[in-house]
Amino acid sequence: MAVLLLLPTLHNMYEVAYVHPADGPHEMMVYVQTTTDVNTVMAKVDALDQKMYGGNHQMQIGLTSDATWPYAWYLRDYPNVCFDFPTGCPGWKNVPVIIGGGDNPYALEQQYGGTANNPDKYSYQLYKMRTWWDEGYKPPATGGVGPGLWLSYGDNPPVGAKFNLGLAAQHIWQWWWQRQAIGDTGGAYDMVLFIRNDLTSAVKP
Length: 205
Description:
Blueprint: H1 2-19, E1 32-34, H2 37-53, E2 61-63, H3 68-74, E3 81-83, E4 97-101, H4 105-112, E5 122-132, H5 147-153, H6 165-178, E6 188-196
Helix pairs in contact: 5-6
């Protein structure tokens, strides 16, 4: 029995560590996870600092309050970080990089986005800061459809649908061995990386 249980345990360890690390929408063992997009953003920040300051981490970086975590950790080697940007550092003008988070990143894009002819504005790219496993399994009173219908049909069961053991078993099997998500995979908390327009040529797209 121990040997039989070891096989799925090893398989799950392999999936969560190597196939779907930091992949909340596909990994049931992860509830909310910082995505690997954070590494992409940091690579761009480091490349720009290398270009401007020889990699000495002296670049000014504006960090909105909604992006404080996890960037308070990832930017720990950068002493010139303005937390709660822009109110936290009213004297800062035309900072090279702004990292913003929030439920409404488009407001930030409207505030800081601009054209290449205006050096006071920024080019920007939208990323996912955190993702999570679908919550459709929760009871209807809390926004889900219930575990039985969710296992059978996902987030959108047909009208009058009942628990279907065959479909539920199929979905569980597909997730267990292939990490095929049962419900929606779009749950995410976004972030935006702004780079001043006159500096974008120093960073790969």
